[in-house]
Automatic annotation (TrEMBL):
Membrane topology: Multi-pass membrane protein
GO-annotated biological processes: adaptive immune response; regulation of cell population proliferation
Source species of the chain: Eurystomus gularis
Transmembrane segment boundaries: 12-35, 56-84, 90-114, 203-227
Family: Belongs to the tetraspanin (TM4SF) family.
InterPro entries: Tetraspanin/Peripherin, Tetraspanin_animals, Tetraspanin_CS, Tetraspanin_EC2_sf
Compartments, as annotated in UniProt: Basolateral cell membrane; Membrane
Highest taxon above the source species: Eukaryota
Protein name per Swiss-Prot or TrEMBL: Tetraspanin
GO-annotated molecular function: lipid binding
Amino acid sequence: MGVEGCTKCIKYLLFVFNFIFWLAGGIILGVALWLRHDSQTTNILYLQLGEKQAPNTFYVGIYILIAVGAVMMFVGFLGCYGAIQESQCLLGTFFTCLVILFACEVAAGIWGFVNKDQIAKDVKQFYDQAFQQALMADSESNNGKAVVKTFHETLDCCGPDSTIAASPLVWKDDLCPKKDFLKNLVENSSCHRKIDELFSGKLYLIGIAAIVVAVIMIFEMILSMVLCCGIRNSSVY
């Protein structure tokens, strides 16, 4: 015999929440794939300066997001099916998966919070090294100039900071598009600031998605346990 009364309402409410959870997993997967193939990040993080590769800490977080999105879609489907079938076994498995997923999200959030400034810092250090090589007399023998030009064209910036950019002794205007050289000096579009904006904006988007998903998971864990108890009690009568 199926559940009745309030427990039946919880059953369909859990189904709706799981459908939203499944959609959220698909959205996170799509956003992660977009971030992974976004032209700004790929142009910068695929660069290589001599034997040194650009920092890939940002991509580690993206791969975690891809895995989380895929698992969320599977768990959401499991929850929908378990709620409709009123299966204690499936709901118990669903609850266990939610707890594990929630713990992984908390761990990933802590990792992201700890490394959020380090990501931009590593990329800025990589840019500074390329910039210094591009200013060397023998810069034609290395790819520093090509790396710097990629940064400037991708981020629409010019130089690491305004002091260096304005100094005629160290600056080579051929590293920036000539038509934008004066504009960049006036607007103070330093590449350090642009790098900070690039990664802080993307991490802000990821943080909002993580908070929304965490709230949905907490509601689902509560509803799944209430429904599981309701199914157990209804089977007694």
